[in-house]
């Protein structure tokens, strides 16, 4: 009798540009001939998950993303066209923020599905209900607005409003949503959030770095607490801590740094599947 592989539950965490390290992980699935049974993603993990769940291969995601981010002139021209405006009112100034859905229309492959329920792989997208003080989990409905909510990093993007709920980046409430996939089979959680890295004794973080670093610390604290109740069979973190949240133009360096991560995932998958078959 042929061996049947276990269901694989894939969890793609948030982490800004560090989330580009998810691409080699998706390629690993393709190279091993494996397909996740379910995907849950936060922020960049939601973007990558939406593309992969729509039937776009890891290699195709790599080609699309590197072509987009390495053509800096074309990318900046597109972003200039949707740039936020600075509005100045009486006694106050409001810095503009990007519309996350407009940015997604610029950067997502056209073949990403329109609705979550149309994806080839069941998908959950995690955002944060700002006034509700809790996470918001999407399992159906228009896909792009829900991914936009999941990536709506404060200060960079305007909050996204869906059904009168004000939503911000999913990393504020659940950066690694392994608690939102079925417990059956093998759960693989890929944590790309990272944390502040001190490169020299004299390093004093800038105000912007402190804002992003504080969110990283908060997210890691939440993840550590959740791990006390359930630990995924495979939990991997790529060596990308030294990249900043907005280092998207360093895509080649991030992908190169993630090569060992890809091989680690392949080995971990082989071992987990072998263990499944022998127990």
Number of helices: 9
Largest β sheet strand count, sense and barrel closure: 8 strands, mixed
What does the overall shape look like?
globular
Beta percentage is 15-25%
Q: What is the residue-mean pLDDT, rounded to a whole number?
A: 91
Percent helix range: 25-40%
Order of helices and strands: EHEHHHEEHEEHEEEHEHH
- The parts where pLDDT drops under 50 for at least 5 residues are 88-94
Strand element count? 10
Class derived from helix and strand content: alpha/beta
Our Rg estimate from Cα atoms comes to 19 Å
Distance between the termini: 16 Å
Describe what this molecule looks like in 3D.
This protein has 279 residues and is of the alpha/beta class. Helices cover 39% and strands 15% of the residues. It is built from nine helices and ten strands. It has helices at 22-32, 44-53, 58-70, 72-81, 100-107, 143-150, 207-227, 251-257, 259-278; strands at 8-12, 38-42, 87-89, 92-94, 123-129, 134-138, 160-162, 165-168, 186-190, 234-236. The strands form two sheets. Strands 1, 2, 5, 6, 7, 8, 9 and 10 form an eight-stranded mixed beta sheet that branches. Strands 3-4 form a two-stranded antiparallel sheet. Helix 1 (22-32) runs antiparallel to helix 3 (58-70), helix 1 (22-32) crosses helix 9 (259-278) and helix 5 packs across helix 6. It starts with 7 loop residues before the first strand and ends with a helix. 39% of the residues are buried. Mean pLDDT is 91; it is low at 88-94.
């Amino acid at each position: 009798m042929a061996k049947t592989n276990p269901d694989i539950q894939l969890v793609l965490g948030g982490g800004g540009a560090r989330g580009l390290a998810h691409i080699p992980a998706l390629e690993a699935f393709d190279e091993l001939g494996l397909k996740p049974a379910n995907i849950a993603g936060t922020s960049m993990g939601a973007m990558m998950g939406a593309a992969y769940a729509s039937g776009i291969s890891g290699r195709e995601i790599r080609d699309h993303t590197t072509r987009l981010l390495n053509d800096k002139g074309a990318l900046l021209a597109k972003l200039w066209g949707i740039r936020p405006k600075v509005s100045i009112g009486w006694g106050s100034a409001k810095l503009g923020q990007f519309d996350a859905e407009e940015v997604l229309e610029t950067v997502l492959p056209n073949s990403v599905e329109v609705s979550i329920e149309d994806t080839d792989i069941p998908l959950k997208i995690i955002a944060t209900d700002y006034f509700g003080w809790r996470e918001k989990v999407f399992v159906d409905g228009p896909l792009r607005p829900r991914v936009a909510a999941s990536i709506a990093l404060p200060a960079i993007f305007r909050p996204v409003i869906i059904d009168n709920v004000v939503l911000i980046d999913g990393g504020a409430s659940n950066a690694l949503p392994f608690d939102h996939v079925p417990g059956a089979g093998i759960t693989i959680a890929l944590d790309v959030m990272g944390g502040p890295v001190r490169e020299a004794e004299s390093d004093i973080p800038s105000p912007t770095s402190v804002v992003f670093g504080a969110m990283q610390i908060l997210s890691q604290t939440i993840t550590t607490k959740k791990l006390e109740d359930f630990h995924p069979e495979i939990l991997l973190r790529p060596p990308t801590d030294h990249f900043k949240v907005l280092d998207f133009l360093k895509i080649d360096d991030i992908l190169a740094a993630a090569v060992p991560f890809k091989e680690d995932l392949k080995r971990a998958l082989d071992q987990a599947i072998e263990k499944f078959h022998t127990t």
